Amino acid sequence: MLEIKNLHVSLEEEDKAILKGVDLTVEAGKVHAIMGPNGSGKSTLSYVLSGRDGYVVTDGSVALKGEDLLEMEPEERAAAGLFLAFQYPVEIPGVGNMTFLRTAVNAQRKARGEAEMSATDFLKEIRAKAKELKIDAEMLKRPVNVGFSGGEKKRNEILQMAMLEPAMCILDETDSGLDVDAMKLVADGVNALRSEGRGFLVITHYQRLLNHIKPDVVHIMSDGRIVKSGGPELALEVEENGYADILAEVA
Amino acid sequence: MAHPAQKQDPLEARLAAHAMPEGAAWAREAREDALSRLRAMGGLPGKRDEYWKFTDPTTLNLPEPPRAQCFATDESAPFSEIDRLRIVFVDGVFDAEASDDLALEGVEIERLSDAQARDIHWAKDAYGVLETRGQTPVTRAHAALNTALAQDGVVIRVTGSPSKPINLTYLHKSEVSDAILHHLVKVEPGAEVTILENGPAAARFSKVMEVEVADDARFHHVRLQGRDHERRAVTHMFARLGARSSYKSFTMTVNGVLTRNEQVVEFTGNEAIAHIAGAALGDGKDAPFHHDDTVFVTHDATDCESRQVFKKVVRNGAEGVFQGKILVKKDAQRTDGYQLSQALLLDDNASFQAKPELEIYADDVQCSHGSTTGAIDEEALFYLRSRGVPEDEATDLLVLAFLAEAIDEIEDESLRADILTRLQAWLDRHRG
User: Fold this and answer.
1) What torsion, rounded to 10 degrees, do the Cα atoms A86, A92, A96, A100 define?
2) A20 exposed, middle or buried (CB, 10 Å; 0-12, 13-18, 19+)?
3) What is the pLDDT of residues A44-62, one digit of tens each?
4) Would you call B397 an interface residue with chain A, using a CB distance cutoff of 8 Å?
5) Do B327 and B359 touch, CB atoms closer than 8 A?
6) Distance separating alpha carbons of residues A67 and B366, to the nearest angstrom
7) What is the ipTM of this complex?
8) B424 and chain A: CB distance < 8 Å anywhere?
C-alpha cells in the first residue's frame, strides 16, 4: 500500500536534516504504529507524506499503491487515497463543516472520474456516520473546527476519514489532548474502518492509544530513522521502560 | 492635443457638456442652488483633496468620460429569479418599454422629470435636501453636481408594504455614455420597501439616491454593481432616519476601473438602526480595478445602532479603499456603533487603504472599529487541499468565507442566494 524507501528530508528554510533514511512498508489491511520520543521526526514524516510546504526531499522515494506520491499535489494525494488526521486540526471560520466535507468528497470523486454524490445521499451518509462518532447535527452546521473542543476536533477528523474512505490513513498524534472516553470514541471510529484493503499508520508518543487500536507492527523512530520494528509487544516495552532503554540498545 | 475645454476650470468644462434639464420653478431653483453650492465649495475635487487622497477623481471630472467597452454576457440578469418591479435605464435614460408598469400597491413611482414638471409635488421638499445636509462637515462635490445636472431618475414614495421589491436596472450600451441619475425615496411612517439596483449603467455613471426613512419605517437596499471593466461610477446614498426606523444597505461590486460609493447616513430619531455592508472583488488581470467605499454615519439621536461591514478581495494590482467615519454628537447617548473594514489580498500586488475614524462627543456610547489586511490563510488552504479540494476551489471557499460576514447582512434569503450565485460565477471566471 505505502512504500517509503530511504527517505531523506530537510527543512526548506534552514537546511536542517530531519528524516535521515526512513524505510517503511505498510501493507493493505495492516495497522502500523510509529512511536518515538519528541523531535524524532514522526510528525515531519506525516507532513511530508501529505505534501505540506516547507520540506525538501533530498533522497529516497514514497509510493502509494505503486504511484510516486512525492510528485503529487496535496489534493492529488488525497484523491489517490491518502488521508492524514491532523495533530492540530485547522479552524476555518466561515466555511461550514458540511459544505467543506461535501466539497472534499465530490472533488475526490471528480478527480477519480467518478460520479458526484447527490446532496441527499451525502446527507444520509454523514448523519449516520456522525451519529456513530457521537457528533451532533449542530456541529456539522458550524464552521470547520471553530469552537470545537479538542475531542470534537479529533472526532471530526475521524468523521472526515469515514466519509472520504481513504486507502491509506495516517493518524498523527490523534490521542493528544484526549481524555479516555474521547480516545475510546476515536479508536472505535478507526477500528470500524479497518478493512482488508486499507492500511493505517498510527503515529503516537504514548502506548495508550494502541490499547484501543491494536497494531500489527510497531516501529520506533529516533533521530529521523526507524531504529527498531517489532510486534505489539514493542509498544508495551516502551510503556514500561520508556525510550531510553530501546535507544541505548540499538545505539 | 489642445482642446479649449481643457483650459477652462474643470467644473465649467464639465457643466458645458450637460444642459440643465427643464422643470417647474422649484426644480430649477433646487438645481441652481446645487450649482451655486458647488461653486462655493471650490468646484470639483482635485487630487490634493484630503477626501480624495486614495482615489483619483480626474476621470470623474473630465468633460467627457473615457471610453468604456460594453461587456457581453450570456448570464441571466441579476435578481431574475425574484418577483420584482423592473425599472430600466439604458445609459442613464429611462426605458419605458423595457420597464414594468410602475403601478404597485403601497407605493407611488414616477419619473423624476414628471415630478419636477409639476408645481406641486412632494419631491419639492425632498430634491437635494438630504444631499445638502450631507455636505457638512465634508463636501461632496460630485453629489452637488448630480443634483444640478441629473438627467433622469425616479421618485418613489412608499406608503405601505409593496408586495415586491423595486428593481432599478442600469444597462450600458454606449461606450461613451455619461449618465447622471438622481432618485428620491420617501418611506412614510410604518411603511417598508426593498430597492434593488444592478448594472454597469454607463461609461461614466453618477448617481444620487436620497432616502428619507420616517418613524417606524424600513428601507432595504441590495445593490449589485458591476460588471464592465472600464466603467466608472461615483454614487451617493444620503439617508435620514426617523425614530425606530431601519436602513439596511448591501452592495456587491465586481470589476470596474473606478468605483466610489459614498453612504451618508444620519440618525435624527431615537432607537433606529442602520446596517451598511459591502463586498467588492477585483482582479486587475483583465483591467485595472479601483474600489472606494466612503461612509459617514452621524448619530444625532439616542439609542441608535449603526453597523458597517466592508470586505474587499483584490489581486493583480487591484486596489481597495475604505474611508469610514462614525460621528456621535453630544446628545446621542447610548449609541452603539460598529465599523469593520477588511481586505483579503490574494497576491503581493494588490493593495488596500483604510481610514477608519471615530469622533465621539457623547459620554455614554459603545463604539468599536477594526480594520485588517491579510492574505489567504495558508494553514487553512493546506487543510482543505489535504482533503482533496483543488487549490483554486479551496481558495474560492476561503474567499467566500471571508466575505460571509458582509453577505450575511442581506436579510432576505433569496436575495442572498442570488448574490452568492453571482459571486460564485465571478470566482469561476477568475481562477488562478
Assistant:
1) -50
2) middle
3) 999 999 999 999 999 999 9
4) yes
5) yes
6) 60
7) 0.95
8) no
